[in-house]
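The freezer alarm interrupted the setup, so I double-checked each line after restarting. Inputs confirmed:
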Amino acid sequence: MSTYIIYIIQPLFLLLLAPLFIGILNKTKACFRGYTGASIFQLYYDLSKLIKKGEVISASSSFVTKIGPLLTLVAAVSCAFVIPVFYTSRESIFGNIFVIFFTLGIIKFVTSLIGLDSASTFGGMGSSRELFISMLVEPIMFVVVTFLFIETKSFNIFTIASTNSTQLSFGPGHVLAALAFFILVLAENARMPLDNPETHLELTMVHEAMILDLSGKRLAFVELASAIKLVLFLTILINGFLPYGIAMEFNLLTIALALALYIVKIMILLFAIALLETTMAKFRLFKVPELLTFAFSIGIVSIIINHYM
Amino acid sequence: MFEFFYNVAMTDWLSIFFVILIILITIPILIYSVGYVKEFVQNYSLKYIYIMMILFILSMIGVVLSSNIIVFMIFWEIMSITSFFLVIYEYRNKENLDSGIMYFVMTHISGLVLMIMFALIFKYTNSFDFKEIINYADKLTINQKTIIFILAIIGFGAKAGLMPLHAWLPKAHPAAPSNVSALMSGVMLKIAIYGFVRVAFMFLGDVPYSYGIALMIIGTVTAIICILNAAAQRNMKKLLAYSSAENIGLIFSVLGLAIIFKSYNMPILATLALTAGLFHTINHAIFKSLLFTAAGSVLYATGTRNINELGGLYKKMKFATWCAFIGTAAISAIPPLNGFASEISIFMSFIQVVGRIDSIWMMVIILCGSILALTSGAVMYAAVKSFGITYLGEPRSSKAQQTHKIPISMNIGMGLLSVYAIVFGVLSKFIFEYIIKISQSVMNTEKISFDRGTLQNFVGWDIIIMTSVIISVTLVILLIDYIISRNKTSTIGNTWGCGFNEAKPFMQYSGSGFTQPLCKIAGSVVGYKKTVVKEGTILIRQKVADMVEKHFYIPIMKFVDYIATKIKIIHYGKIQIYIAYIIISLIVAVIWVAKFI
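Predicted 3D structure, all chains:
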């Protein structure tokens, strides 16, 4: 029974803390740039403000704008329920990694339709770019899953996490595959070298352009969904490639330890993202394929290394 | 009567599966047609289209059920001819006739190659009967198998749309009425897959793995090139036609994978790969006929296929938009719909090769798998383009503003197909397990038991659990949404133009602009050309062309034309000479046939 409770607690933990992690990321970036920055709870304030407000819906919009934001949030929240955060079991009847990735794909599908829905020029531009980038991301996803399958002989994220957490040593391929996956995370979540999450400037925006015409609670839904999505991807990265210390049995001490380790790991990743975002400029759209091809290549190399060693 | 049928017809699992597929898809399309043909009532004969459609459907069932080479070829030819007459149904339009003739030629190349293939099969096995041929499979020599395999790829591939014989698809589908396109793309292409599975897996028995690798590479190349072309199109039906060729490529590549597994003596994985292929076959049949019928309703309502002229159709046809939305989501592999279910099983089949076969071929297969993953990304790009530009936003031209109302029967047909798309996705576990039985009978692996782990990796409770999680999360969020949105104002206003108040519909992204980044990097594959004209106003003209057509078909056509002008010399117009020609060719043919037998 207690194991069932943990399957409820860990997604709720992830969902509740996701905005906080984004806040920490933004705060770190502010520190690097040398200004005070907003509070780490800023996203909670923003979301509650948005929810309290009324909304304006474009006269051109259709059911996509009505249900789309809800769908994105549903996809993000549902995925949180089928991945391990700080507790994993050796076998699980859910948690197929492809199902998770494709469910997260709902978010980009729906947001790109939202972009086209309001008949605004910006929306179409954002959708076009988003789909262009996500198309090139797909092969990276494939090679990374292939790599994890080579290591663990499983497609199940729970099994992957538990197998990898007991593995004593990893080959050099592991690092390369993790790097490829990290670039995938940046691309899927509209982070820095591919998209600038901070600006609303025509030239730089991809994700922001699509949701330009949302307001009120629908904007809050999409913002929350993208915050959860980033944390989900980071959690998959952690539990796929760096699951040391993840709890596999249900007792308070291991869980507490696993939780602490999880938070440390995610802090490190957020730190890395913040470092990237403050030191790099955004790529031109047509340089993005080069970066993603690079990620794909190191993914392939990691498979080769792992296969021959 | 029934016994007679049982003895004459092919009644193994594979045939039954395809009969089910045909019936499943044709019922909604026939319902749809009742409304759709009203469009033609003034200009063309309705009796003609109904009779042809029924003949077409019956001939497809005939092909699938025939247990004899001769009967198979007769039904195959009836299928080709009736579909040709359906393609040129709107014969008053000259362009349709041209496309129809292209289709006619291609389908007869397919028929000719198949006749040669079956003749050789008869020569090798001395039997017309499918069941006897299947039993004879092990006695074929390797050379005989090679010839039959190559002819099968060309013959069935030309019908299904494998590279480089796919060129008829983007021509015939826009020419044909939409219900016919739906039938052709949804069902007829699948008959070619049936034929291929029948010949390559059952008649030939075990074949070397290199055949599988060749087939997989052909399939992958077809998939990627066709989807890039699809994304570049602005004609809605051309886009769908290319996407059909892409899915055929996907199916053939996973069939190739099944052959590889089989020859490496891994019957379980081979069975699962074949199952994934067959599952995708039926799923593609569902969502592609749904999308073609939806495109047909747009055509019915607005009279144009050019998505750059459309937009904002949601307000005119709400139900059709919902169906198109489901179809778009299904083809983009959005869970829990059917396209997603088969797509992930195909991906998982590809990944299963690691560590199991020679490393060089393993890398080739992984690369093919990655290209197919890229394809699936491009599918979403093309599908969102075709749906988003057509149905969302504001109308881009007057055609999209003055729409006709859609008859109810069209909505029923599309609704039924949408229900299939959902059911085949959510309940994919059970359907997959049913199809495993079919693949087992094809592969002769009924006796091998499947261990739970392998099957779990493929098709566990995942999708059902995910669906129930999604549904319960939706309910919870809807409840929260209901609570927080009490006393909240929701006003309707204009789209925010960033301070610019004169936003016009033509300022929206156009279909061509939407996929411009892709066209730019795909460049020569889609024959992308951009010219900027400065005459008073600045105009941008974008052009795409099928490179295969340009570099493969046109030279052949020129060559044939050249030969024809040379041969013209022997035409004197005297009947005696022609009779002499006939006698000479008859003698040559007799000698040839005598030698052949």
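Quick read of the result. Chain A touches chain B through 80 residues (CB under 8 Å).
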